[in-house]
Amino acid sequence: MGDNKSPSGSPKENPDNDSDANPLAKDDSSLETIVRKFQDSMSLKKHKFWETQPVGQFKEVGDSSLPEGPIEPPTPLSEVKQEPYNLPTAYEWTTCDMDSEETCLEVYNLLKNNYVEDDENMFRFNYSKEFLRWALRPPSYFRSWHIGVCAKSSKKLVAFITGVPARIRVRDEVVRMAEINFLCVHKKLRSKRLAPVMIKEVTRRVHLENIWQAAYTAGVVLPTPITTCQYWHRSLNPKKLIDVGFSRLGARMTMSRTIKLYKLPDSPVTPGFRKMELRDVPAVTRLLRNYLSQFVVAPDFDEDDVEHWLLPSENVVDSYLVESPETHEITDFCSFYTLPSSILGNQTYSTLKAAYSYYNVSTKTPLLQLMNDALIVAKQKDYDVFNALDVMQNESFLKELKFGPGDGQLHYYLYNYRIRRELKPSELGLVLL
């Protein structure tokens, strides 16, 4: 179980990446192709660690005789290793209490300075403390799954990995899983091979709660993605995005034409479009459960989950819905979360404010119109860019609403659960933070 996705904006907008012009571009992302390219480029470099883990292996790709479901059966709880794995002598485990302001600040600083950067080292994720508390404390979370590594001498936090519990439906099976995230090792300790020990340790602690499966994402290819998604970006503040090198001025485009191209109305156009409130939780839960039932892999949300993950929280998550002015029925819903990036080495700007599309459900309002309203409120709130993966039905609005494909891909993985064939992004109903 691991995680190191491309950052924030990082899969930067790539105007040369015109998939219309190249009809083969789409097919290129099939798992076999990715695996082949990957094996060629790594001259069959072995994933020493992952080959020992219960995950789909590259050599199994395309073998439809393998059964779907758990790869290894659960071990009796009495046989799960009771004591933590050994760390190099200078380091020790610590459990990070995210309720503590001091610990939260320490985790925030470790991630802010050492977490995922884009390939050109121009942007680095900058998760806020409020965001980390939200991401790591869902209903019935386990504090023991918020794992730090400290230097024994200074007690400074030098590495971090987390899990949170989730119920994820795979076809007709609802499976208790851990969502693994925020694997981060201090830049100076990258040679210490801490990550595999940390992954084994979080796995051990998850097993102690009698949970045997997990979900995670990464920006790199490991054995073996269940699907590979692409980030798309919609400029909201094109001048700033171009100034900081997130996007480039298109060929034959001037700055003023670009600003005009991305201009949005001042306020949402859908009658009855408003912010979600606590009283809306039951209606939103019904809408969302009904919508997510069509996907092969999706979360199994109840009202407590919806209240935690989707009730608006300033600079963390924004949710809007459409309430019919006539019947007062809640018919549509959209949401996005806030994940800024630090802009590295720019004199004028230090932060890129990015919104990430989360869960969106359209029943009466066309999805295109609903998402255009989401862009309008994001612009009103001073976001610079709106990012979306091509999961669920997102593909239907991306080009039309002037999103451009990024140059980053996000691979989704399940631990100790086999899916017989690679999914299309549109068959995935799961967004991991």
Automatic annotation (TrEMBL):
* Family the entry assigns: Belongs to the NMT family.
Q: Where is the Glycylpeptide N-tetradecanoyltransferase N-terminal domain?
A: 70-229
Q: Which organism is it from?
A: Quercus rubra (Northern red oak)
EC number assigned by the record: 2.3.1.97
Q: Extract the InterPro entries matched here.
A: Acyl_CoA_acyltransferase, NMT, NMT_C, NMT_CS, NMT_N
Q: Which Gene3D superfamilies match?
A: 3.40.630.170
**Parts forming coiled coils:** none
Give the catalytic activity.
N-terminal glycyl-[protein] + tetradecanoyl-CoA = N-tetradecanoylglycyl-[protein] + CoA + H(+)
The UniProt keywords, alphabetically, are:
Acyltransferase, Transferase
Q: What does this protein do?
A: Adds a myristoyl group to the N-terminal glycine residue of certain cellular proteins.
Q: What is this protein called?
A: Glycylpeptide N-tetradecanoyltransferase
From what superkingdom does this record's organism come?
A: Eukaryota
Q: Which residues form the Glycylpeptide N-tetradecanoyltransferase C-terminal domain?
A: 243-426
Source taxonomy:
Eukaryota, Viridiplantae, Streptophyta, Embryophyta, Tracheophyta
The region called Disordered is annotated at: 1-32, 60-81
Polar residues bias: start-end ranges:
1-11
Recorded GO molecular functions are: glycylpeptide N-tetradecanoyltransferase activity
CC terms in the record's Gene Ontology section: cytoplasm
